[in-house]
Structures are given as C-alpha cells and as structure tokens.
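User: Quick sanity check before I run a bigger batch. Here is a single chain. Can you write out its predicted 3D structure?
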Amino acid sequence: MTPPPTDPPTDDTARLAKCFHALADNIERVVKGKRDTIELALTCLFAEGHLLIEDVPGTGKTTLARCLAASIEADFARVQFTPDLLPSDITGVTVYRQNTGTFEFLPGPVFANIVLGDEINRASPKTQSALLEVMEERRVTADGTTHPVPRPFMVLATQNSVDMGGTYPLPEAQLDRFLMRITVGYPDHASEVAVLTGSGTGTTPESLTPVATAREIAELVKAAAEVQVADALYGYLVRVVAATRSLPDVRLGASPRGSVALLRAVRVRAASQSRPYAFPEDVKALAGPVLAHRLILTPEAELSGRTGTDVIEEVLATVELNSGARV
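Assistant: Done. Predicted structure follows.
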C-alpha cells in the first residue's frame, strides 16, 4: 500500500520537517510541556487551515497563538472579540473620499497572514459570520467588490469552555471551517514549576525571534500537498469519515469538507516526520482533532456524557484498513 519505509525524504519534505521542528522548538521556549499540542497547531498552519483553541481560562490558549505568530515573520493582527464588535471592525469598511470623489476600501485586521481572534464566542452571531467567507474562500466581498487576503492565511481563535456568561456559541457552519479544535490543558508538575521559576525573567512571546518567513510557509504549504497517499489510504480515510454519519449517537456526521481537511492534515504530519508518503497511523492520530468538533450528537448522547472525541475513538476502533471491514 505504501512505499517501503527506507525511501529517503524528498528535498521539500526535508525542508518542511526542518522548519516544522524549528518552529516547535521556538514556541516551546514559552509554552512548556505541550509539544503534542504545539505540533497540532503547526500541522494546522502547514495545512493552511484554521485553528480553534478551546479550554478553561489560564491554560495558555492566547499565549500559544501569540507564540506561533511571533515565530513567523509575517503580518499579524489581533482582534479582541466583544459583544459590541461589528463585522466591519473585522473585514474593513468602504469610505467616501470627498477630495477625490471616489470610494476607497480600508482593509480590516483580517487582511493579515495570521489573525488571532481572542475569545471569539463573546461576539454576536452577526459579527462571527463576518469570518465565514474569508475562512473558506480567502477573500472578503465588500460593496460588490472582492478583496483577496494575503497567503498564507490562518485564523487562530480562542474560547473558554466554562465561562458561558455573555457568550454566543459558534454555529455549526463556523465550527466546520476550523480545520482543528484543540485544547491546551494543564501543564504537568515539572512544566508548571518551570513556568513559576521563570516567571518575570523567562522568555515571553514578545521576545521570540522569527525562525521562518511567510514566503517560506507558503512554499512549504504547497510542498505538503505533494505528499503521496495510496489509493487504499484514501479509501480508509473516507470510510472513517463516513462512519461518523451512521452511528446512532450522531445526529449529523462529518461532511466531505471534513474528509478534505483530514487529508491535508495527514499529508503535513507525514512531511513533518520527513516521510514523502502517508500512513494509516497519520489518519488515526489526527482524526480526533480534525473531526470531533464537526459532529452533532443526539440530545440523549450529550446527556449521557458522550463527546465527539468518544465517537471518533469508537470509529477508529471499528473501521479497518481493508474495504471489507464492518463499521
């Protein structure tokens, strides 16, 4: 099904792996003990997808996003989402220039390579919807005119999972546009001690030096798309996604957009390990972060404590690589 594991990496996959781990090392200077989470965020970056970081307050969601942005020499914009934020505060606005008698579009913060939307669920649904077009199509339409955003383009959004006062849950259409949803989680004992001992004198996101440029990332995004995927692995990936649509606990399973997102992430994971081809293990490692937030469970399943992650684990345990397997 796959080339032999002794196949040497291509120049492009070797470059991507080197850049990937340089970025991870740089971010880990600030975000201690979260290598797996950092690598998921970088997988999302090289897949040119959008990332939703959801966790309890104080676990480093915004710090992780800021460190990723600080590690890349690229345009960065931060938007603090609040209930009074307007769509034009994000996308931009068209103004009339009286001295020239013409209309001019003033780009909003979304016209950056990396856009941090902090506490995205605190803005109204109307404002949240301003991101729908740009997250999917990498462009903004204002007054009938289309304005493309720079590439690479990534939205990093954070939200608290417990502080629900004054918040507006993200609609399913918005969640589906995030390639991954991840959590940071509490650090282990040694990492939290390192945070305390370095407090005040340790490395901060502002002190990080960029280790890659936007142009490099754009080139490596294209390189990741060249990673080989065998026909059997395509079939396995599609069966995993399709299985989420037929389980009794799931009211709405993952869409074909989920299949495409998982494939992009799988290719990046393979390249980050200097492999020019993907393995089934790549699918298994990424199915949870890529698919779980796309599922809508039945009310009964939610009341019993089931989560999208539980469903994905069940699917991975039942779907086999060969096409004759039962789900």
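The CA atoms of residues 140 and 147 lie 5 Å apart.

User: Great, the batch can go ahead then.
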